[in-house]
């Protein structure tokens, strides 16, 4: 699969006249709790030739592709990534932390990650993660039954929101560091669920223990209430503009 992904990235690059600066895994494989039937969620950041950006016309700043087999791939122009970073969107923060990197230009990931630290918005990050957790919580049936995939769509975002609230920094992408926030008894349960997920299809339905369900409900309510007292950050674009100009100049490939 690794070679298929690399070949696909090279084809996308050639056919679209772009230069891929960074490509990574962004889904459950990157979060480090895959199932046997998990897709490969490949995401990439790219740049176009300098003159592409010098136009009065509207331009496209993303590339989307149909899902083929287990491969789910799309990419964002560096301009779009920087625009989202100014809004403290969590997606670029997560991509840059992925433990599975398929391609990268030397120094690009490190430089962009360093820049991103100045654009952490506590409120927007907490609300984003709570929204994902809430959507997955709504799939619980019969009081305590949920697909194992959806349970982790509750747990990881909930812990990421907890991290943003308590640590006041960008949340880790992978589940391991997030689990340090859990009480020992709950951590043991989650570890066992990760092992179960590694051998079960994503649609496998499991009961949530009363202890885990109570923890989820209590923490969700606590974090939600605490976030209402936080001030929303506002960010300027100066550093982002400088990074953008430097990037499209450095990687101009006409």
In words, what does this structure look like?
This is Nucleotidyltransferase domain-containing protein. 32% of the residues are buried. This protein has helices at 2-16, 28-31, 78-86, 90-95, 108-116, 122-137, 148-167, 175-179, 184-197, 210-227, 238-250; strands spanning 19-25, 40-47, 62-64, 71-77, 101-104, 145-147, 205-207. The two termini are 31 Å apart. It has 254 residues and is α+β, with helices and mostly antiparallel strands. It has two domains: 2-119 and 237-250, Beta Polymerase, domain 2, CATH 3.30.460.10; 122-227. It is built from eleven helices and seven strands. The longest helix is centred in the middle third of the chain and has 20 residues, at 148-167. A five-stranded mixed sheet has the order 3-4-2-1-5. A two-stranded antiparallel ribbon has the order 6-7.
- CATH top level assignment of the largest domain: Alpha Beta
Largest sheet: spatial strand order: 3-4-2-1-5
Distance between the termini: 31 Å
Structural class: alpha+beta
Name given to the CATH homologous superfamily of the largest domain: Beta Polymerase, domain 2
The major sheet is characterized as: 5 strands, mixed
Query: What's the helix-strand series?
Result: HEHEEEHHEHHEHHHEHH
Write the layout of secondary structure elements.
Layout: H1 2-16, E1 19-25, H2 28-31, E2 40-47, E3 62-64, E4 71-77, H3 78-86, H4 90-95, E5 101-104, H5 108-116, H6 122-137, E6 145-147, H7 148-167, H8 175-179, H9 184-197, E7 205-207, H10 210-227, H11 238-250
Parallel strand pairs: 2-4
Antiparallel strand pairs: 1-2, 1-5, 3-4, 6-7
Helix pairs in contact: 3-11, 6-7, 6-10, 7-10
């Amino acid at each position: 699969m690794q070679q298929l992904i690399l070949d696909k990235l090279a084809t996308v690059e050639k056919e679209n006249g772009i230069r891929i600066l960074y490509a990574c895994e962004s889904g459950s494989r990157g979060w480090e709790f895959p199932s046997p039937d998990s897709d490969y969620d490949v995401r990439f950041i790219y740049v176009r030739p300098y003159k592409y950006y010098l136009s009065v016309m509207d331009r496209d700043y993303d590339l989307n592709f149909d899902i083929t087999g287990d491969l789910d791939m799309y990419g964002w122009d560096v301009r779009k990534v920087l625009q989202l970073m100014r809004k403290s969107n969590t997606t670029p923060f997560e991509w840059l932390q992925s433990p599975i990197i398929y391609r990268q230009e030397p120094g690009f990931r490190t430089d962009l990650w360093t820049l991103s630290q100045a654009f952490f918005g506590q409120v927007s990050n907490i609300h984003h993660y709570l929204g994902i957790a809430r959507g997955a919580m709504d799939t619980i049936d019969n009081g305590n039954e949920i697909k194992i995939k959806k349970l982790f769509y509750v747990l990881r975002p909930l812990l990421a929101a907890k991290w943003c609230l308590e640590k006041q920094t960008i949340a880790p992408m992978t589940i391991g560091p997030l689990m340090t926030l859990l009480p020992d008894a709950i951590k043991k349960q989650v570890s066992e669920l990760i092992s179960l997920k590694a051998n079960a299809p994503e649609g496998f339905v499991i009961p949530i223990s009363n202890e885990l369900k109570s923890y989820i409900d209590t923490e969700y309510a606590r974090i939600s209430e605490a976030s209402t007292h936080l001030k929303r950050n506002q960010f300027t674009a100066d550093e982002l503009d400088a990074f953008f100009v430097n990037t499209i100049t450095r990687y101009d490939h006409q």
